[in-house]
């Protein structure tokens, strides 16, 4: 057996570790026993040729298989040669000797199998096992060679760690020994330690007292520093801490602290006064840090001045309230100025007052000073606006009517003053209300946090603030709307040297003022001495012997005095009439300027009033209802009546407006434009206030008055001159026809309303007019001789038409039927104010359409007045239409009369027409020029058309009025006709007097030709040939009259025989004429 395992040790090439080389092949002859030898055979088994293990792949194939995958190739590329070699060996062992890699591997079992030469043994694999062993040894050597430096450093590190552990063990052992010794020492007793402990406590108390004294010593400086920095919370804490320290029993016996105690007690009172003043400074806008907010409030609502700061956007108040942290106490931020944020500063002061324990007393002081502060703010604001708007630019009513016409320069200046005043004042009022709301919320938060319940005395009341606001607003409305004598002067130029607003305020002219009294005058001195004597006799000692007369009230100097100096004077005169200076003249027209800003302010105030307060937001406008019904409406009625009376009573109200081109296309009355300006101004004003039917009825009633005034003026124009005033005044004939109902008036109305001027209606009108004038001959008194009257009638027509059209544009039906003139008001009267809370209406630009709001009942009266205007204008137009025709008829009747113009003339040649015809031509031209100047084309055509037909018809139908007539007289008639025709061509288009000319030309042809003319006309009609022209067609009566005219000279002959012969011949011609005209 020894020979069996000794071969490997006898081998001279063996490794130092006792393993033989795996690749060695020539050493087996030296071995005593080589189970892998080539010559080893067994007769029993008959082993085939030498082949180690035909089932095992070679080493290269195993290596190649294990490293053939892509992942293996990537890993092999990153490995070193030694690592790659050891990996290959491990793969080989895993493939050929899997039992060696198991955790429960038994090397002895494998060794016995390698020694077993039997068929079940593995002795034939021994050589392969040795090769694998040698390969593993070489791989390990290569690993050692590559990583020898790491191995060396690991050995040194191990030694260091081992040394550190040993030293730590030594220190722990020494510490344990020290703790044991300390424990032994502490358990020992020492009497000196107790004495040292008591001494240390005494020294600590002394040091603490010294530290407190040192802290108290610097308290005054700290307190003054905190007050000067406006850090009041810290100041209150410093003060209260110092007072608590001074109340400690240990400091009672220190006499040096008595002065400090007195100082701090005084500082507590002084701090309360400072906090009160600071609160008032910010609540009543005295602080410069408050200016920005109220200026932004005023600027955002419409008031703007270059003096205002142009800051950023204004944060809405509801956002400010939402961002305030009221659930936690206010804290100070030393890095910022506390006054920069007014609302934060108010909360800070409230918190400081609460910590100081003086909040309730400050609330009482706040209520007491509120009336004086508000009055002073109003006066101060009025003075500011007075300085910004010089009185020389405000002026009174400078236009011709004395009306405040919207859009005029002077009225715009007045509007600028009022808007600037109201927006500035309401901006301050709103800022004050916001400050009170923040004060209210801060106090309520304190009560809620401290659990004190809802203390009414601490929270205060917004009702008192609102009552004061209401008084001031009512005072402003009274000052700028009402006056005891609201008199308007009507002149053509502004008055020089007028008082504040260009006109005297008679209601305040005689008021006594202390500022105007002279305390050194004899009267004042005498009265004062008498009063002093009475007081001394009644109550001795009440007055001093040395009397000093002081001015009762100092006149305000240039610039604004301090706020405190205004308190006393403001309080004395707060409730007296005229306590505030009026910047503009009182007028009801100011209501349109006053009310929109006021309503916007009240609407914004509703958002500021805290919920659950004793002031209901719905009642904020109730005082305006009272003012509107009891004050404004009577004043409006009085003013409207006065202005209307002024318009009606002006001497030039029925004269042409020199500036008519600015308002109308045709000339109109000055009074009409003035009256419409009054109506427009009142309607514009009514558009800015809640609709009240009583106010609209006032304007409708004045429109009816103007109609009556114009109708009276019309009658005065067309009235005949009367010698006696007792006889009822009669009218001109044209006016009678226009006013009386009859066929003529009906025909003319139909003619005017027809689309085109109907020829048949014109002929009917001419026939009716000639018939009536023949029945009742016209006299010169029936004709309007004055051309100015015709112009006035034309102006009256254009004015009424213009007024009717313009007033119709004011018609507006509203669904709100409030009528304060009724005994009961509707239940929803308070809600009507909300309809006007549109900020767009609260600007100073009065633009857009103007309407007169009316209900269904009122609009009926309005429509009736408009119809009256139109009917009256139509009456005036008919009168003018008839006037020129009456003038033609009257002139022609005079011209045809033998009394004024005989037509039996001598043989002298006729060169000139009748003077009456020339006069008629001149009158027609003048009348036409007047018509053209005032009327439109339609009215002009209505007046012109038919004049030629009238002259033609009248000359033919009234030809017998000229008898007797001879040939020369007929020639003059022809000349008259020719002159009339030439003149009418310039008036009426297409005029032709050929019918009249042809008619009298038949006179020149003689009676025989007249009969022949009738015969030929009859034959042409019978044969159906061409119709006879109208200019040559005459009726039987006309031709009969012409025959009579032909014999008129013989009939008028004084010789009886001549007249009888002419009469007989005339009868024969008339008989022949009737035979031809009436034959069937």
Radius of gyration: 64 Å
Share in β-strands: under 5%
Helix content: 55-70%
Which spans have pLDDT < 50 for at least 5 consecutive residues?
Answer: 1-68, 303-311, 396-406, 485-511, 544-578, 823-831, 834-846
Helix count, per DSSP? 39
**What order do the strands of the largest sheet run in, or round the barrel if closed?**
1-2
Compute the separation of the termini in Å.
190 Å
Backbone shape: elongated
Find the count of extended strands (DSSP E, 2+ residues): 2
Decide which structural class fits the backbone.
mainly alpha
User: Biggest sheet, in brief?
Assistant: 2 strands, parallel
Mean pLDDT: 75
Structural overview:
With 1080 residues, this protein is mainly alpha-helical. Helix content is 61%, strand content 1%. It is built from 39 helices and two strands. Helix 15 (359-388) runs antiparallel to helix 17 (409-450). The longest helix is centred in the middle third of the chain and has 42 residues, at 409-450. It is elongated.
Write the layout of secondary structure elements.
Blueprint: H1 2-10, H2 59-66, H3 70-78, H4 81-96, H5 107-115, H6 126-146, H7 148-186, H8 192-217, H9 219-228, H10 232-246, H11 258-283, H12 291-301, H13 317-323, H14 342-356, H15 359-388, H16 391-394, H17 409-450, H18 456-459, H19 462-481, H20 522-538, H21 563-572, H22 591-608, H23 622-649, H24 670-686, H25 693-718, H26 733-739, H27 743-753, H28 759-775, H29 787-808, E1 811-813, E2 852-854, H30 856-896, H31 915-934, H32 937-944, H33 947-957, H34 967-984, H35 994-1005, H36 1007-1023, H37 1036-1046, H38 1048-1051, H39 1056-1078
Parallel strand pairs: 1-2
Helix pairs in contact: 2-4, 4-6, 9-10, 10-11, 10-14, 11-14, 12-17, 14-17, 15-17, 15-19, 15-21, 17-22, 19-23, 23-24, 23-25, 24-25, 25-29, 25-30, 26-30, 27-28, 28-33, 29-30, 29-31, 30-31, 30-32, 30-33, 31-34, 33-35, 34-35, 35-37, 36-37, 36-39, 37-39
